[in-house]
Amino acid sequence: MILESVELVNFLCYSGDKNKFEFKEGINVIVGDNGYGKSKLYDAFYWVMYDKIFDTNAKSFRTTSQIKDQLVSDKAKNDTDHGPIQVSVKLTFHDTEKDEVYILERKYEIRKSDGGILSDDASELIISHKELSYMNARVVNDPHKIDIIKGKILPDNIKPYMWFQGEQVESIIDFNQNDTLTQAINVLSNISRYDNIITLADSLKESGIKELNRKKRDLSKDLTASEELEVRRKRIEEKIHAKQIQEVQIKDNQAKAEERSERLLNQLSDAKRIRELEQDRKNIEENLRRVREEHLEAQIAYHKKMFTNKWVLKSTEGIFDDYSKAYDGYEQTKLKKETERKANLMAADKLLKEMQTRLPIDVPEPIHMEKMLEIERCLVCDREAPEGSEPYQKMKEILERSKMRAQDMVEEDKPKNDFSMDLKKLYQNGLAMSHLIDGVDDDITRALEQLDKLDSRRRELQEEYDKLDSQVKAVIGETAINVNDANNLINEYSAQNDMAKNAIEQSSQLKYEIEKLESELALIEKDLTGLVVGELPVYLEEKVEVLNDFQAIAHSTRKRVFNRLVEMLESEANRHYQEMTSANLSAKGIIRLRELSNGKNYMPELVDEQGNVLRQLNTSNIILIKLATIMAIVSARQSSRDTDLYTLITDAPTSVFGEDYTIGFCRTVSKVYRQSIIMSKEFYKNEKLRKELLQDDEINLGNVWMITPSIPEAERTNRNSLTTHIQKLN
Amino acid sequence: MTREEILRSFLEDELVEKKGYLKKSEVESFKWTSANTNKLVEVIKFAIDGEVSNESSNITEKRINQYLNK
């Protein structure tokens, strides 16, 4: 079935009714930059077939009833003030084998009135059929026939492999779902026929054995014993069945765990490196924090030491010396004065004593002395003694002598305040401190050295931290694994490994138990046969043997055919992979479809020539392996069923890998698919690549179209006048 | 896959030769239409035929049982 054309009327950015793309066999390419309408065209195909379009924001498909008037081009809505606006997409398919044509047209209508919009709830799909391409088309109304036609265009189970967007490639063969490849093989091959034959063979064998057992019971010489044995046999069979189911589950779990471990192994070394670097970073961060705290404490302590360690006394040696001298001077002066005072006292004492020896005290009596002073005449020697004269003074001394003591005579020279003790204390304090002053400089030097040491340690750690931090960020950037992911990954790897080991142990134990039960069963069978009297019908024994062998052959044939299919797929996938990567010299490796331990599922992986698995695959590698595997499934199917051809429609499949692979991809696609429609921005941006596409002899090229918006995205504030210009390039 | 191809894949099984149903040379030259009295081969053909013609498995099973009960 070839898709001949798509015609769009007012569908999203395809405003108006002049939007038509025609396609041919081979690879048809829609070239356009981001936002030019490629995905909208993909939506148009999808909308016709499934009444849904892909909502890029919600990352899910939405139906017409959910989208409603958003399906209609803004220009059409803006240009119409009043009345209906019709949206439609028409796909024309041509069955070239039978020369039949199928036209699928989906329509949707809204009405504008008084500024408001009334939207229909549902769209309408009209399918027309031309029995011969030149005849008139007739509308198909029979739902059954409609389903058949849609199935001919694209069966549901094949849809994921034929119609997909670039970002969906990941999920078509999901490395996290270990049976997706097996499912794809089942869908796209004839292996299901073998599965059906196995089911038939199992059922036939079971009924044959039941028939034989019934016959044995009928011919038993001891019916009670036979019945007892049969009950035992049934119980054992049930046990075996239960254990077999358990064994399958365990093997499935083992396969999943092994596959998961394998997958994680790709990232394990990165994860371990990230974790180690992160651990180092944390250790250094902790050291840095401690050193910073120590540095801060040392800085605070440094200031406190001004007083606690008497650094404030630094350079005060001179002051103490000055004080010592002043204190010494004070003491000397005081001592001198004291000595002088003592000498004066002694002199006074001597004078008094001398005076006493010359003239006793109160002789003459004070009243006479006072009289003599009054008259200013000494009555003893009868001489004049005027006031102020020496005789007058002597008379006065004699009068006062009786009141005088030597102490009093020198007392006036005695200092009034004695600071000697205070000054001594100050001196002693200064003396004690003067011993410390000598050590202050060393102490300060030591403290500064400690601060410097801490500061340089802090700087070293900071540098080390910055280095590790940038290393961690670089590895995270390269691997797209963050620290949490790395820890989770390592933990999960370990957990999956443990699960796989446990599953192996459990499986081995179950195998042993099943063998034991089967031995018991064989003994019961022998006993039951021993109870038979006469001959069992030959045909029946032969029948059971044939059915037994048929069942064994059905199982082993299915496995053999499946393995052969896998080998063929592997070879096809490698052919496609090599072709797609031929322009990139650095791309290496061979695709191997590895059988998982449950014997049912296969996973694609890349190995070197010695069969060693290549780890650390980049996104391009992974996507190309997946695409090569999908193409292998499709191309393998074509080789066996020529008529089963469907059009590959894919939006931006090349955006997920480098431009080096784009031409290789197109060559491969044009060989694998009879018809394909590819939307690509690479050919828009890279003119050389576009030229290569148009001129490459190895590409079976269909039509190449370029789409451009009437107003560039940067220059428009709304889409009210937006149309899409469609230009054929070849 | 055609009936012939499916039948060939079954007959290639080592058990066919091992249990003496067909010799290797017979397998190689065996055709869908080849004359045959071998019960296993007939059962396989019944099964393939039923599968390819989308026959119900109950009917195929019945046909095989009838054949083997002769």
What is this structure's SSE topology?
The complex is a heterodimer of chains A (730) and B (70).
Chain A: E1 2-9, E2 19-22, E3 26-31, H1 38-50, E4 52-55, E5 60-63, H2 64-67, H3 74-79, E6 83-95, E7 100-113, E8 116-119, E9 124-130, E10 138-140, H4 143-153, H5 159-162, E11 163-165, H6 169-172, H7 180-188, H8 191-218, H9 223-308, H10 317-358, H11 366-375, E12 377-378, E13 383-384, H12 390-401, H13 406-411, H14 420-479, H15 483-530, H16 538-580, E14 590-595, E15 602-607, H17 619-640, E16 648-651, H18 662-672, E17 675-680, H19 682-685, H20 687-695, E18 701-709, E19 724-728
Parallel strand pairs in A: 3-17, 3-18, 11-16, 16-17
Antiparallel strand pairs in A: 1-2, 1-6, 4-5, 6-7, 7-8, 7-9, 9-10, 12-13, 14-15, 18-19
Helix pairs in contact in A: 8-16, 9-14, 9-15, 10-14, 11-12, 16-17
Chain B: H1 3-11, H2 14-18, H3 24-29, H4 39-52, H5 57-68
Helix pairs in contact in B: 1-4, 4-5
Question: How would you explain this protein's 3D organization?
Answer:
The complex is a heterodimer of chains A (730) and B (70). Chain A is built from 20 helices and 19 strands. By secondary structure, chain A is of the alpha+beta class. In chain A, the strands form five sheets. In chain A, strands 1, 2, 6, 7, 8, 9 and 10 form a seven-stranded antiparallel sheet that branches. In chain A, strands 11-16-17-3-18-19 form a six-stranded mixed sheet. In chain A, a hairpin with a 4-residue loop joins β6 and β7 (100-113). Chain A is elongated. Chain A starts with a strand and ends with a strand. The relative contact order of chain A is 0.15. With 70 residues, chain B is mostly helical. Chain B is built from five helices and no strands. Chain B is globular, with a radius of gyration of 12 Å. The interface between A and B is medium-sized, with 27 and 28 residues.
User: In percent terms, what proportion of residues of chain A is strand?
Assistant: 15-25%
Could you name the ranges of chain A where pLDDT drops below 50 across 5 or more consecutive residues?
Answer: none
Helical residues, percent of chain B: 55-70%
Total DSSP E strands of chain A: 19
Sketch the major β-sheet of chain B: none
Pair with the most extensive interface? A-B, 27 and 28 residues
Overall mean pLDDT of chain A: 86
Separation of the first and last Cα atoms of chain A? 23 Å
Radius of gyration of chain A: 56 Å
Total DSSP E strands of chain B:
0
Question: Based on helices, strands and strand pairing, what is the structural class of chain B?
Answer: mainly alpha
Q: Which percent range fits the helix content of chain A?
A: 55-70%
Percentage of residues in DSSP E strands of chain B: under 5%
User: How many DSSP helices of chain A?
Assistant: 20
Determine the number of helices of chain B (DSSP H or I, runs of at least 4 residues). Answer: 5
- The average pLDDT score of chain B comes to 91
